[in-house]
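Students often ask why we bother encoding 3D structure as a string. The short answer is that it lets us treat folding as translation between two languages. Here is a chain of 195 residues written in the first language.
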Amino acid sequence: MATAVVLLVVLAACSEDKAAPSASLSTPTPTTAATPRPPTDSDVAATTATELLVTYFATVDQLNQDPSTPIRNLKKVATSVQLTALQRSISNRRRDGEHQTGSTKIADSEVQTVSLDNSDPKAGKVPTVFIDVCWDVSNVDVVDKDGKSVVAATRPDTGWTRYTVANYEWSKDPDGAWRVAGGEDLEKSPCTPAA
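And here it is in the second language, the structure alphabet:
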């Protein structure tokens, strides 16, 4: 009889557990979040150089769109061969009464290499980031003083250029002195135009 009472109490307890919500007796396993790796100097240089290219395209667009914008603004985004080439082309366009409509978009960009070698700035050995950029000029036109387009009908809407972004002032300004120093067009498949 005692066994029957114990069995009845156990069965009753089991049936009560089924009716009531059960509390979990297991303790939660603590999860350890992976600590993010702090960015290296190369990571920071790559990010800064990529951001500069956005400003570079916006500046060049502005100078080509508005002849009253001072050409000296180029010195904030370009240096060396790139600065000289842009100054010449923008001055020629303004002299000829041409201006740009629309803006260039960056459809894609890929950092290729980063070198932080600053061993001989006078000889051009300065921190440099090489970035492949696919530009999209599908909304860009260049018109003469009469509003007629001077862009060749065969001009591609997208193309790839490998930009050299250098910092000739690394020892004084490692973050803010990046400038586009050169560019070389690449033979690559066209990218998808920017949205």
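Translate back mentally: The first strand starts at residue 99 and ends at 101. Keep this in mind for the problem set.
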